[in-house]
Amino acid sequence: MRPIVIVPGLGNSGPQHWQRLWQAEMPDRIVAVEQADWDQPDFADWLLRLDAVIAACAKAPVIVAHSLSCALVAHWAAQHERPVASALLVAPADVDSDTHTPPETRDFRPMPMQTLPFPSVVVASSDDPYVTRDRAEAFAVAWGSRFVDIGAAGHINSAAGFGHWPLGRLLLDDLSR
Fold first, then answer.
1. Which residues in the chain come in under a pLDDT of 50?
2. What is the CATH number of the domain that holds 79?
């Protein structure tokens, strides 16, 4: 089985977030990128830490990113050539928008808009406070990703009522094949 790299976003994913629940369910298969500072992200350090985790994988991993880390993965893909099997990019935060993202995300600008060199799925909500549905779809088109709109689901995190998130697991399983 392919390894899975979990990449939490700004503020980290708490213990009830679907990313951490999946990690607890599959500890032999999932590794999470851990950042030095989850609240004041250092772009260069976050990029280095993501690269180190991917480099340590025995096989090309499946990346599972949330929020700000979708931008991180897009930047990483534009700068690195390590093998990645696929990526699940959930609730991508619009780092180019002062209206939708906080000042501490500005170093992640501009959002890369190049085709990703691996298959990917972008999952978005119609009422996400960090990105409009249309902008999330524009990311998916630019990245060459399949776009999945799950309706009014907030930021697709534990605060929005997402625990184990069965649909996400189905998407992950599909990308892992």
1. none
2. 3.40.50.1820
